[in-house]
Specification:
The protein has about 110 residues and is mainly alpha-helical. The chain contains six helices and two strands; from the N terminus they run H-E-H-H-E-H-H-H. The chain has helices spanning about 5-15, 25-30, 40-45, 75-85, 95-100, 105-110, and strands at about 25, 60. The chain has a two-stranded parallel sheet with strand order 1-2. It holds the Pfam family DNA_binding_1.
Length: about 110
DNA sequence: AAAATGACTGATG
DNA sequence: GCATCAGCCATTT
């Protein structure tokens, strides 16, 4: 296969986050082999083709909060998507101890195409 | 080329 | 827990 572009790597990682779990922008960047590029992850999510049906709502910031501002359409959309799969959200805050994805690194590494 | 912009982060008070 | 801040980095002005 052709080498995956940075955006494709990010999309691949996001696609692996299990239903009912969340992961921070910075963590997604780390797993994609792009440390220090948390902001780039948010950009990659915005630019993701709709047909990928990416679970972008499972990506939140390192403080365990939805990064959209309260009372925006995007905030409410993400909050509903999270709740619909059993994730508790209070005023934009998610408990990382309960819902953060902690992948088995050995298994994860072996399933990466890069 | 320089400055501004963010779906970010970690440290600090 | 919340607000600031400086540092960060690709992209756009």
């Amino acid at each position: 296969m052709n080498p995956l572009s940075p955006k494709q790597k990010i999309w691949f990682i996001v696609n692996m986050i299990p239903e009912g779990n969340v992961l921070a922008y910075g963590k997604v960047a780390d797993l994609a082999g792009l440390p220090g590029r948390a902001r780039y992850v948010s950009r990659a999510l915005q630019e993701a083709p709709p047909h990928l049906n990416l679970a972008w709502h499972r990506v939140i910031n390192s403080q365990g909060k939805i990064s959209f501002k309260l009372n925006t359409i995007n905030f409410q959309n993400q909050q509903e998507r999270l709740r619909s799969e059993g994730i508790e959200v209070n005023k934009g805050k998610i408990s990382l101890s309960k819902f953060e994805w902690k992948p088995d690194m050995a298994t994860l590494v072996l399933s990466l195409p890069f």
